[in-house]
Amino acid sequence: MEQRLKKERNQLLLRIILILLAVWLAVSAVFCAVRLNTEKVNIQNDELSKLNRIKRFVIVGEDNLESVEQFFPDEADDGGKTPQKSFDTQIILTDRSTNKIVADTANTIGVYFTVKTNTNLTGNAVGMLDYDDVRGALSDSEYEEIAGFLNTERDDGDYYELVCTRFFPDRSRIVPTQLKIVLVSGADTRITLEEAAVYELNADRAEGKNVYDCGSIRRNTIPKEFILDGVRNKDIIGTLSKEQRKSNVAMIRTGALKYVFYASDYLNYYQRSADEDASYDTADDNLYIQYAREVDLLDSCKTALLSGVMLILGFILTIGAILCVMIWHTVRAQLVQEQKRLDLTNALAHDIKTPLFVISGYAYSLKENIDESEREVYIDRIIEQTEEVNGLIHRMLNFSKLDSYSMTLSKTEFDLCALTKDILKKYTALPDGKRIVFTHSGDNKISADSELIRSALRNLIDNAAQYSPPDSEIQVGVNDQTFTVGNRTEPLTKAELKQIWKPYVRKDKSRHQKGNGLGLSIVKSILDLHEAEYHMEMKEEILICRVTFR
Prior knowledge:
The chain is about 40% helix and about 25% strand.
């Protein structure tokens, strides 16, 4: 039985785990699909908001497209070292009247340089630094020298920086004309210790342009990652097809969870007049803007996805654990019930076999026309064996009924002492000199099914009378709501006391003993139905059964 229960438990656990896994995967898949779609919509709305902010602040003045910081609305200046933190956005502005590109962020980084004005005051210049304007203007030897400086690690903690000290604006771009390698103090990064090298470049392109010297408030540092590692804005729009670039707004899939947000529109821009004190003039729909950004949905919401999936897993595991306990409790009860019925069937077949064999033998003898005197004896034996079989079957049916889930109790309040006295009237003359001694005390009122309790007490008294030795006392007592019966018998071990309530278990392990082995099993079922407390114990040579009703 234990092996079968263990096997069934393992199989049930495996089935539940597989079902829970399937449910978790299905629910998680639906959750992830909904969450990713929501994130996709949110990203699209956020990017449209950024584009609208950019469109409101585009100003064109002199040769420079001003307020370029609006191209990177999420970036924060950190003192001029690395104004731009991400490089997944591209913006192209095209002048519709000339069909020329006014600004293109591809291959650039946004910079925020200090500049010295004509009045020797320090101002700011915002623009895009193009990689080709720097690397293309340097010779290979100059580039290698710069790389050597920037890659130098000094023992004193000082380090080299590449800074722009002179430049001119060219529409949206800031074009350097002088670069310097400076040694910066590691103890105080605001202090420049020395100039290590100077590079002049783009002189031919500076002719006719307004060239500015950089201010002294802070260094116009060109990031090492930009000049050496090529970390700069990608040409995202260039990877899109002509048809894709016709869209006003689109989320274009480029991978499993990777997209390119693309939008295009016409816009007004503010034209600064030559008089710096004059107000800005508005030019109508003269610029065409294209905006693109690479988006990875998983990166943007992986924390939310992981948290959601884990919450779903925890919820399903909790529900699964509860269901597992409930289902296992039901299945175990059914298995135990099935095993009981199987044991009953086997035991019944064994017990019926002997009387049927006897009946068969007497029946064949009657068929042979035996003497009339023996005929009556044979008939009496057949009737006796038939009654034994009939009694056995009735007891088994009663036991099965008591052990079923459909059994209901008809509870009434009655006196346990009075019921016991009524039962004992049938035991006034026991064979072999056996006698019953009855005692009672206290309030004996209980609420129970009186007929079932009568059957249980009768079985207990029958069992005590059957197994007690000749000329012995059977002590029956009722104290408050507790019934006890005790009889002298051969000592029983603890293991035997545990087994005694099971069907077809007899004290002497023999089926030749009178009785069918169902009495105490019926008692146990009745008491379990009433949720009564009961147990058997040995005190010296006395077997005592004590039953307490709640």
